[in-house]
Recover the amino acids of this structure.
């Protein structure tokens, strides 16, 4: 009885909320998860555009190191004097490009947007566990973005030590121009970001565990939710370590300690001689975050892809439980492989081989996921709309970028490949492009849910083809440069005779990068144009099974106008034999099913003929095992 | 009530949605998750401590000064001469933290920090009693035990302030340390400082909750779960101190 009463309270509360909604409470300090998700998305898109424009600037520099571009002086002022990009500003650009893309676009922009939008909608909750903390999470992220952008305008320029901010460049304010105020602001921004990510993550996990609707068993959760949950767990457990590491860095910078510094004379370090520390300590602390961070970026994209591929193949996802298992395995392994970023720091070779083993084992769950995607696509009734194209593009990047991960995870090969363009190519394909594709795929797929309209499909296709061609043309040649020993983060390669052979390739890459840049502007146009002028969306435009498509197109506080639907089946009942329509939403009961939790125990007879030697009991057992593994 | 009777411990029911699988409110769940996260923050600092410490040669066992011995005015210099306080060696904490208020000049190794630890653990006990009283909705008892917890926390902070003052007047700072390696003092200030900040915020939270208890907020709400939530935080802070104490003072 008490459950009914509290439910009525919730409804009453929602009605109450509607009356006093003002502009500020609806669009600015909103506590509604759908609005917060839009806020995350728009901020992420703005940051992403800035990051992308930065990459175009330094691509120009890399392709034409000896040419002057008057536009640099117009745009960058003293950083582009005489049309020549300042070397220090080049370092600042690659640092901020990396930081923005990794943290602001692919961490907050990706999981902030889709976790917020989808967790309550797909598990069947009226909002996040704590809408207030959710709002705080966004505003911490917003403040953090502002601080990061502000750091572009301080004296000495923004942080320039690379996105990994290794000491001593980050620890000594006098080391390079960007080590001063810019670096301080970088750290402030990062600490705000960590708070935001923590508030968000706690909320996501609590919502998924506590607020699932009746019948939404863990094994009925869409794979998006599984991915978002483990992303949140990774963030909750790894960001605090970056926090600890940054705290010590702040003390080294400003309070005269020497945790990361050794044998630095007093005149270089604010009048205090620094002895006894080690920069390797920072690398350990940083990469304890840094490696899980890779999966914080990738897992949501993989979750989105699972959902989109299943929906648009009109087939159940292949190996549902294997997918969950591999998400868990990846999450677990990601905590014990950070050392593979540090093979050449002089670590004990035995330790190196342990890290190598862990790293290579990650290939197993990754391969399981890849083959499951392919298995889902196989003989599917494919709908090649933009989101599906981006999802398939992600699978492509996941393979091509993942394979080079096996090279880099090898402690011996890494001696050669470390800090070369091979690494740049690897992570831009597997983490950069793949995750961006996952994000774009999610935007195309859930745009109707967010804005009530659909994006233009033709523009979407053009966007896709230009982007994938550009991404491969940019990053694929980089593998060869890396194998030839071209180091990353250098201002101009013409300084080395042996790299002159790559000048033409660099020009080609830059052209390809501009192609990709233009494609993103097509996307931006499509995105903002469709918001007002796009085709009006129907309630379930992709004929999908998950719960978010049971809510009305027009957003309302509390998501469902009446009762929250109960869930009777898993989310991948596509093309069920014997059903007229090729999808069955999760809130549709089986025939004669009353209790959401008990599915009818009929075991379907296998479609294909069972080998005559197989006894009937064995056939049933076989079917059961297949069902349990999610293959049937 | 009829509904709760039908609930079974069947795992299908537990994880079947429509209720919390652990039968806790989202707030308490979030507090647990936050504490897990915070544990990693402290771990990172303690791991950094271990990393730095093991770049130095190990401490020499103290065989020179016996407990309750009289300390000379040039104690630090004497230890320096004896090779116990040198920059290459991590100093023995019992020689560094050997003072006690009002007992100046007597070697009392780790006595004061033991007292601090005792105070903090005692405050954990009073916190448990407050939470238990909250379950019984015994407002007066909750008030009593909350105030005792607050006093315990404040006393701990006071002790820490005294110890820091003492350490600083002896010459320790973030960038200098007469007892040996600079990192010893720097790590001491950062780790105990970070813990102290947690205790301080815990005391502030406890005060806020205490005021709410006095105002009868939770009596009206029908449960004292907020007391339980700050209790979780408080116990966590105590537990962390046990690790800090072990790593900094005992090992």
């Amino acid at each position: 009885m008490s459950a009914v009463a509290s439910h009525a309270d919730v409804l009453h509360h929602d009605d109450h909320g509607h009356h006093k909604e003002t502009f500020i409470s609806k669009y600015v300090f909103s506590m509604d998860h759908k609005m917060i998700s839009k806020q995350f998305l728009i901020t992420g898109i703005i940051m992403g555009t800035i990051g992308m424009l930065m990459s175009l600037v330094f691509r120009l520099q890399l392709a034409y190191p000896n040419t002057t571009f008057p536009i640099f002086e117009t745009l960058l002022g003293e950083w582009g004097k005489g049309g020549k990009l300042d070397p220090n500003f080049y370092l600042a650009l690659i640092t901020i490009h990396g930081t923005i893309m990794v943290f602001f676009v692919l961490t907050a922009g990706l999981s902030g947007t889709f976790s917020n939008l989808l967790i309550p909608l797909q598990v069947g909750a009226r909002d996040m566990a704590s809408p207030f903390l959710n709002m705080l999470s966004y505003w911490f992220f917003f403040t953090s973005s502002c601080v990061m952008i502000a750091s572009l305008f301080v004296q000495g320029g923004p942080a320039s030590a690379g996105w990994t901010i290794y000491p001593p460049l980050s620890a000594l304010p006098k080391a390079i121009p960007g080590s001063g105020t810019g670096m301080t602001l970088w750290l402030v921004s990062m600490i705000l970001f960590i708070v935001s990510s923590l508030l968000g993550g706690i909320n996501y996990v609590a919502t998924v565990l506590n607020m699932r609707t009746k019948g939404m068993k863990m094994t009925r959760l869409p794979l998006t939710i599984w991915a978002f949950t483990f992303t949140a767990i990774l963030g909750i457990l790894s960001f605090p370590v970056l926090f600890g590491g940054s705290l010590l860095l702040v003390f080294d910078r400003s309070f005269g300690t020497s945790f990361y510094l050794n044998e630095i004379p007093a005149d270089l370090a604010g009048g205090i001689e620094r002895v006894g520390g080690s920069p390797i300590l920072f690398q350990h602390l940083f990469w304890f975050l840094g490696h899980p961070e890779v999966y914080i970026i990738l897992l949501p994209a993989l979750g989105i892809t699972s959902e989109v591929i299943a929906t648009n193949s009109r087939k159940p996802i292949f190996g549902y439980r294997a997918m969950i298992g591999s998400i868990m395995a990846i999450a677990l392994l990601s905590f014990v492989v950070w050392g593979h970023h540090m093979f050449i720091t002089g670590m004990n070779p035995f330790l190196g081989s342990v890290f190598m083993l862990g790293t290579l084992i990650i290939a197993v769950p990754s391969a399981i996921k890849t083959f499951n995607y392919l298995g889902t696509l196989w003989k599917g009734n494919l709908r090649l709309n933009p989101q599906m194209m981006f999802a398939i593009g992600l699978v492509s990047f996941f393979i091509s970028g993942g394979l080079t991960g096996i090279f880099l995870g090898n402690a011996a090969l890494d001696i050669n490949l470390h800090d070369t363009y091979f690494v740049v190519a690897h992570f831009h394909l597997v983490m950069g492009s793949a995750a961006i594709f996952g994000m774009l795929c999610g935007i195309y797929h859930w745009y109707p849910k967010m804005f009530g309209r659909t994006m233009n499909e033709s523009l979407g296709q053009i966007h896709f083809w230009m982007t994938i061609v550009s991404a491969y043309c940019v990053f694929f040649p980089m593998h060869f440069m890396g194998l030839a020993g071209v180091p990353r983060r250098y201002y101009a390669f013409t300084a080395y005779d042996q790299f002159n052979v790559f000048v033409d390739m660099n020009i080609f890459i830059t052209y390809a990068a501009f192609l990709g840049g233009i494609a993103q502007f097509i996307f931006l146009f499509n995105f903002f144009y469709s918001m007002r002028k796009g085709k009006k969306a129907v309630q379930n435009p992709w004929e999908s099974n998950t719960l978010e498509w049971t809510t009305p197109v027009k957003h309302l506080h509390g998501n469902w106008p009446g009762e929250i639907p109960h869930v009777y089946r898993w989310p991948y009942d596509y093309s069920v034999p014997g059903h007229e329509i090729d999808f069955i939403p999760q809130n549709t009961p089986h025939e004669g099913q009353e209790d959401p939790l008990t599915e009818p125990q009929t075991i379907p007879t296998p479609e294909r003929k069972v080998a005559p030697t197989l006894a009937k009991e064995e056939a049933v057992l076989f079917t059961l095992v297949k069902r349990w593994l999610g293959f049937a | 009530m009829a509904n709760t009777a039908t609930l079974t411990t069947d795992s299908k029911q537990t994880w079947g949605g429509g209720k919390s699988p652990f039968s806790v409110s989202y707030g308490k769940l979030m507090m647990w998750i936050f504490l897990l996260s915070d544990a990693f923050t402290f771990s990172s600092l303690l791991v950094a401590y271990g990393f730095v410490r093991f770049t130095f040669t190990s401490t020499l066992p103290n065989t020179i000064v016996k407990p309750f011995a009289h300390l000379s005015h040039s104690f630090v210099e004497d230890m320096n001469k004896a090779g116990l306080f040198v920059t290459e060696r991590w100093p023995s904490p019992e020689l560094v933290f050997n003072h006690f208020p009002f007992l100046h000049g007597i070697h009392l190794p780790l006595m004061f920090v033991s007292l601090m630890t005792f105070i903090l653990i005692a405050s954990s006990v009073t916190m448990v009693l407050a939470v238990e009283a909250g379950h019984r909705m015994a407002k007066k008892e909750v008030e009593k035990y909350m105030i005792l917890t607050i006093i315990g926390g404040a006393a701990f902070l006071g002790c820490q302030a005294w110890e820091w003052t003492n350490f600083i007047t002896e010459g320790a700072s973030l960038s200098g340390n007469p007892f040996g390696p600079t990192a010893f003092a720097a790590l001491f200030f950062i780790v105990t400082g970070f813990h102290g900040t947690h205790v301080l915020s815990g005391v502030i939270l406890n005060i806020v909750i205490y005021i709410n208890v006095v105002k009868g907020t939770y009596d009206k709400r029908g449960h004292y779960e907020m007391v339980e939530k700050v209790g979780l935080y408080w116990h966590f802070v105590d537990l962390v101190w046990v690790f800090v104490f072990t790593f900094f003072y005992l090992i």
